[in-house]
Specification:
It is built from 13 helices and 18 strands. It is α/β, with parallel strands linked by helices. Its EC number is 2.8.4.5.
Length: 430
């Protein structure tokens, strides 16, 4: 039985795809590189933005046109099932929380041909076989769903309903297993890392990071996105946990807007001031921290003054990376029926915001010129460069004929671009 898969979306979605292929391979499936060669096709979808959802529908239509059994997994399966069924009426829909049932789904489509899967604890996506997209990186989910689930623009409560954290002991087992498999970079991921463990009565994120940092082995940890809302009570201990040797000094903290009024309209549960406070506390203790944030431009209630406040917060906090998104209404969200901003207004604001983001990022990157130190090679870049990451998770592009994947090297930063550094290989360390 031959299987072809396409996987789209966030790190959690990537992990779902790896688990699905791992389970199918364990059950005797053969993974092929072309949908034309497959007995069954799988697409793990993303639904977070309108244009992304449109692209997913286009890919579903293309795969469905082949006339082969099709499984549509991921967030579109739960977020926009009617739209998928209109596009591919005979497709089997598999929501994110049910990805561990992938072998059962294939059996239903094909009749048989797979070994009977081991009974699984359905929503705990740990301790399962994987087919990794990158042999150096292990993506480990630590929870499922979003605890807040009230943001007016967000479809996640519909695509991944409910909230539950996975036990620390199982996460640590997964880290150890990944390191034993040769992974040197661990991504801890969820819909909101900042709420990890809160159903227990307290926030367990610092404890999780401290525990992972104490696992034996030569590896680094990238901590996934955390919303500001739950961070204030744990900031001191969280920052201390970030000082762990194995933790990348990388913080993904989405603010979405610099306007208190817009944040209230978005029902984010936090103000711009909390975001600024968290960034400043982190940077006071870890000045070279790499900061990523998210901004939505053109939210229906956003005025020119609100947008100026967003520009101001970017200049104040100077994030290294900004995910800039145009507002698109998502089905079933409170903001779905709000009057949209004129497209030309949104385009103008996005252009201005990108200019500010690029200037701030370049200013941050220029500070790294002349730095020499250790970095982990985790990627082959599209322009023929190896990409390595230093302790602050800064991407450094280097050219060499040597195969460096997974190597720890000594690199010197020679130049700064807007969103990456350029460097030269000094030597391979191990």
């Amino acid at each position: 039985m031959k299987v072809y898969a396409e996987v789209y979306g966030c790190a959690a979605s990537m992990a779902d795809g790896e688990i699905a292929l791992g389970l199918l391979k364990q059950a005797g499936g053969e993974i092929v590189a072309s949908p034309e060669d497959a007995d069954v096709n799988i697409i793990v979808t993303c639904a977070v933005k309108g244009p992304t959802a449109d692209r997913m529908v286009s890919r579903v239509r293309k795969l469905n046109s082949l006339g082969k059994p099709l499984i549509v997994a991921g967030c579109m399966a739960s977020g926009e099932p009617r739209r998928i069924k209109q596009t591919a009426p005979r497709a089997f829909l598999l929501p994110p929380k049910e990805i561990t049932r992938i072998t059962e789904a294939v059996e239903k489509l094909l009749g048989d041909g797979l070994n009977t899967p081991v009974e699984l604890e359905r929503e705990v996506k740990l301790g399962l076989p994987r087919v990794r997209r990158n042999p150096v990186i292990s993506i480990i989910p630590v929870s499922e769903g979003c605890r807040w689930s009230k943001c007016s623009f967000c479809i996640v409560p519909k695509t991944r309903p409910g909230f539950g954290s996975f036990p620390i002991r199982l996460i640590l087992d997964e880290v150890r297993r990944s390191v034993a498999d040769g992974c040197r970079e661990i991504w801890l991921t969820s819909q909101d890392m900042g709420s990890y463990g809160m159903e227990s009565g307290r926030n367990l994120l610092p404890e999780l990071l401290e525990s992972v940092n104490n696992v034996e082995g030569n590896f680094k940890v990238r901590v996934g996105m955390m919303n500001p809302i739950y961070l204030k009570p744990i900031l001191p201990r969280l920052i201390q946990a970030y000082k762990g040797e194995k933790i990348f000094k990388f913080l993904h903290l989405p603010v979405q807007s610099g306007s208190e009024r817009v944040l209230k309209s978005m029902n984010r549960g936090h103000g711009a001031g909390l975001y600024v406070e968290a960034v400043e506390c982190f940077r006071k203790e870890l000045p070279e921290l790499t900061l990523m944030t998210d901004i939505i431009v053109g939210y229906p209630t956003e005025t020119e003054r609100d947008f100026e406040e967003t520009l101001e917060i970017i200049w104040r906090t100077k994030p290294d990376f900004v995910n800039v998104s145009r507002f698109f209404p998502r089905p079933g969200t409170p903001a779905e029926n709000m009057k949209p901003q004129p497209p030309e207004t949104v385009s103008r604001r996005i252009h201005r915001l990108n200019e500010v983001c690029e200037a701030a990022a370049l200013e941050r990157n220029e500070r790294w010129i002349g730095w020499t130190g250790e970095a982990l090679v985790d990627e082959w870049g599209i322009k023929g460069n190896w990409i390595c990451r230093n302790y602050a998770y800064k991407p450094i592009a280097i050219k060499t004929d040597k195969n460096l994947m997974g190597k720890i090297i000594e690199v010197e930063v020679t130049d700064a671009k807007t969103f990456h550094l350029e460097g030269k290989l000094k030597k391979i360390l191990h």
